[in-house]
Amino acid sequence: MYEEYTTQALPSKKYRELLGTCFCVFNSNNNFVIENILRLDKDKKYSWHILIDKETGQLLDDVKQTINQISGLEIADRFYEVMEMRNRLVRSYQVSAEECDVSDDEDNQILATKYSNGKQEYITEDFLFYFIDKNKELSERLYELRDL
């Protein structure tokens, strides 16, 4: 698919909308994690300005020192899972899919990813919907924590 604002081939509008949704829900949860860290920080050792500049993976220790003390490992585990999935999106590359059934784009444009073990796979709409669902579950746990 092509758009008037670029000559590069793009995945379908629906796929790009889902991809954008993935980044929005992840960013929302990343900020919600920071909000909960700050709320639970009784010693006031954390600063929003410092936390917001950290890469997501660098927040895991802060989560363990604050959120885990109240909620156990569930939130940290869910946060780690969506972080790893988000990394697959960020480190993806665009391809023309060989299989017609993995893309709804007329030119079979889709993202793919390669894991450190060498495994490669397409980032399908199912993957994107699963990522959105996992972020919803994390958000629900973060709301529960905030409301304690």
Rg measurement, Å: 18 Å
The N- and C-terminal alpha carbons lie at a distance of 48 Å
Categorize the overall geometry.
elongated
Q: Would you list the SSEs in sequence order as H and E?
A: HHHHHEEEH
Number of helices: 6
Note the beta-strand portion.
Answer: 5-15%
Number of DSSP strand runs: 3
Calculate the mean pLDDT score and round it: 93
Oligomer: single chain
Helix/strand/pairing category = mainly alpha
Note poorly predicted spans: none
Number of domains: 1
Strand neighbour order, sheet with most strands: 1-2-3
Q: Major beta sheet, specifics?
A: 3 strands, antiparallel
Question: Helical amount among residues, as a percent range?
Answer: 55-70%
Protein name: Selenium binding protein
Index terms:
mainly alpha; 6 helices; three-stranded antiparallel β-sheet; 9% strand; 148 residues
What does this molecule look like?
The protein has one domain (16-146). It has a three-stranded antiparallel beta sheet. A hairpin with a 5-residue loop joins β2 and β3 (120-123). By secondary structure, it is mostly helical. The chain is 57% helix and 9% strand. α5 (74-90) packs antiparallel against α6 (125-146).
Gist?
This protein has 148 residues and is mainly alpha-helical.
Task: Summarize the topology.
Blueprint: H1 13-40, H2 48-53, H3 60-65, H4 67-71, H5 74-90, E1 93-96, E2 109-114, E3 120-123, H6 125-146
Antiparallel strand pairs: 1-2, 2-3
